[in-house]
Each structure stands twice: as structure tokens, then as C-alpha cells.
Amino acid sequence: MLLRTAAKYISLTLEIKKRNLLSEMEYRVSFFIQFFGMILNDIGWLVVWLMVFLRFPDLNGWTSNELIILQSVTALTWGLIYFFVDGVDEISIYIAEGRLDQFLSLPKNILWQVSVSDTYVTSLGDITFGLFLFFFAKEASIGNFFVFILVAVLGAIVAYSFMLIAHSLTFFFGNFKQAAWSLIGAFSHLTDSPQSIYRGGLKFISMFIFPAFFVGMLPVTIIKNFSWLHLSLLSAAALVIFVIAKKVFFTGLKRYESGNQININM
Prior knowledge:
By secondary structure, this protein is an all-alpha fold. The chain has one domain (2-253). It has helices at residues 2-24, 28-55, 64-84, 91-96, 101-104, 110-116, 124-134, 142-168, 170-173, 177-191, 200-209, 217-224, 228-253. Helix 2 (28-55) crosses helix 7 (124-134), helix 3 runs antiparallel to helix 7 (124-134) and helix 8 runs antiparallel to helix 10.
């Protein structure tokens, strides 16, 4: 029963994303400009860090190879989030403006509805860049490619959960959207920077306050030196953070004040 329900949600999600993609493709020139622009943006960020490694070939055990793995993982991770569940980044707006009503009026799970309600289609550039870049790593192989996909998906669950928690705080603190976006921006920068440079309090923050360790550092470690222990740790972290995020969201939802904007989008 649980698997059947999950399959239905996955099928619905893919259908929604297919329709969104086809809608964007009606304006192909605009779409491809944004698509390749996203790839160029990712390349630019990679080049900046490669220049750092040209000057300092070893940063506390990290080399340009680890950087390539990190950038490929985080590009795929964030690409998956913004393509499939970009709606999570709008939750604080929906709450503050009383616009959750339109989702409460529908029969499906409200968290799923909100999450898939928006699609940043050009994040396909991030996904493409991440998949392509992985094959420049020394560890690139067919077996490691599947490990790479798995850890990126688990990292996406961690990142999605953090975003959900940040935006759900609007239920408790009112207009929290700018603060939520600031927290997510800081978290994002922590994930795609070489985490070997973090020490002391900053390392603690990257692991427990902003769980960037589970999106960047740990996936890189798993790809370089696979171990079931590390994979289990990442899987457990993804599950625990997701459960906490859901709890925060649905606890906050009980405090939600309707904006009297019930309507059904056909």
C-alpha cells in the first residue's frame, strides 16, 4: 500500500514536471539561453576554485580532484531540488500572504503539493553540469557513477529538509522569508566550498547548525573511499532531518491563519 502510494506521487510529480518543461520549451530561445547561462555560472564558480588550487595545491588534504567531485555532487543536488521541489523555497511567502489555502482545498498531501507547485526549469543546467563534471574526477567509473547519484539524492533530501525548516519558521515568527532565504544562502555556500578549510566553531556549524557536511563533505568521502558505514550515516542523517522538517512544518501548519483565498487551479 505504501509503495503504491509512493509510486502514484512519483508518477504525478513526473507528469507535473513534464508539463512545466513543455510549457517552458514553447519559448525555446529564452529557455536555452537560461539553460546554458546556468552551466556557464557553474563553470565560473568551478574556475574560481581551480585558480585557488593552482596557488595552493593542497588545502588540508583536499586537491582539485576533491573539488571536482564536490562541485559535481552539489550541482546535481541543488539542481534536483530546484527542478523537482522548487516550491519549498516559496513556503514562507505562501504562509505570510495566507496563500496556503489553495493547497488546503486539494485532496493530496499539502507538503507534496507545495513542494512540486513550482519548477525552476533551467536548473536542468545544474543537473547537466553535475552529471558531466563527475566524469572528470579520478574516481569516475560506472560503479561510482551510481554511488554519485545516490549520495546526491540523499544530499538533496538533507538540503530540502533544511530549506523546509527555514521556511516553516514563518509559522512561528511571522514574516520570516528574508531570514529564511539568508539562512538557505549561507547553507548553500557552505555546501559547495571545500569543507577541509573549516575548523573549530565553523566546522561545528557546518555539521550541526547548517548540515552542509552531509551535502558536501560526506558524499565526497563516500565517492572517494566507499564504505557502508559512511553511506549508512548519510542515509540516517537524511531520514532524521527529513522527519524533523516534516514535524516542524505540520506543527506550524496548525498555527496557520487562512488568508480566505481558497481557489482551485485547474
